[in-house]
Design brief:
Elements (H helix, E strand, L loop, with lengths): L6 E2 L5 H22 L10 H56 L6 H24 L1 E2 L2 E2 L6 E4 L2 E4 L11 E3 L2 E3 L17 H52 L3 H22 L5 E2 H7 L3
Antiparallel strand pairs: 1-8, 2-3, 4-5, 6-7
Helix pairs in contact: 1-5, 2-3, 2-4
């Protein structure tokens, strides 16, 4: 503290140096407010910069992981919808087979019509098998799977050549064999075997749909939720290190502006100034 009555050459010694420091500090604070970022260069906070960049790397990895879970969940939804559609079609096919099995009051023409409708259903199932895809990857042709980390579920083929495999008299038959001119067309005599093949196909589709649903609910969804929580935590930590605290920065800017104005007023008063005048210029 300068004793009352003493004098010093403030304008020639401390003034310019302090004014330069204040001006630079004010410029840094204004930059922080303008950009919303507290660390604009390494010199602002070297340790904080290192921590921030490490957290940014973790955040990028977590976001990539989260996107993979989102893709898997969307693919699972596509598969679930397609399998549900095939299951509904097979329910209609089974109803036609049961109708033809109850021959009383049913003409041959009506039985033929039911067979034609059943063949049309089988064609629709094949269309679903061929057309169900996600990002150009076929999902229901027997070669795809849903993979999340070390967990996966294989997706079935819903082609009529693969569905409903049933052994009859030592031979294996599929859904294709209940089509028109098939070994177990529903206009034939062995409707019991026809119904067994169709039911086997529907049970397989329902089981596959349940597996995909369980994988979506019990594997993908929890990992997706955990990744979301981790992203929020890391983003918050990174923001607390790097981003501007506007209340603090605004208060600092006001403080620096007052000091800068005081410095200018003191410097403009002349080369020498006594302590009483200094206190007066500072507003004390």
């Amino acid at each position: 503290m300068v004793p009352i009555g003493s004098s010093f050459s403030f304008a020639q010694t401390q003034g310019p140096r302090q004014l330069g420091s204040l001006t630079q500090a004010k410029a840094n604070t204004l930059e922080s407010l303008a950009t919303g970022v507290r660390i604009n260069r390494g010199s602002d906070d070297p340790a904080g910069l290192i921590s921030s960049e490490q957290l940014r790397g973790m955040l990028a990895e977590l976001e990539a992981e989260s996107r993979s879970y989102d893709r898997a969940q969307r693919a699972a939804a596509v598969v679930d919808s397609a399998l549900g559609q095939v299951s509904d079609l097979l329910a209609d096919a089974e109803a036609l087979a049961v109708a033809n099995a109850n021959t009383s009051g049913l003409s041959d023409l009506e039985r033929e019509a039911n067979q034609l409708e059943l063949s049309s259903i089988l064609s629709a199932i094949d269309l679903v098998a061929q057309g169900t895809s996600f990002k150009d990857e076929a999902l229901l042709r027997g070669s795809a799977s849903l993979d999340v980390g070390d967990a996966s579920v294989n997706l079935p083929s819903v082609s009529v050549l693969d569905l409903g495999q049933t052994e009859i008299d030592g031979e294996s038959y599929t859904l294709a064999d209940v089509a028109s001119n098939g070994a177990f067309a529903i206009t034939g005599d062995d409707l019991e075997s026809s119904i067994a093949i169709i039911r086997s196909a529907r049970q397989g589709v329902v089981r596959a749909q349940a597996e995909v649903g369980a994988f979506s609910a019990n594997v993908i969804a929890p990992k997706q939720a955990a990744a979301g929580v981790a992203i929020e935590s890391v983003a918050s930590a990174e923001s607390s290190i790097r981003d501007t605290d506007y209340a603090k920065a605004t208060a600092e800017l006001a403080r620096l502006s007052v000091l800068e104005q005081a410095n200018l007023r003191i410097s403009s008063a002349g080369n020498t100034i006594d302590a009483a005048t200094l206190l007066k210029l500072l507003g004390s």
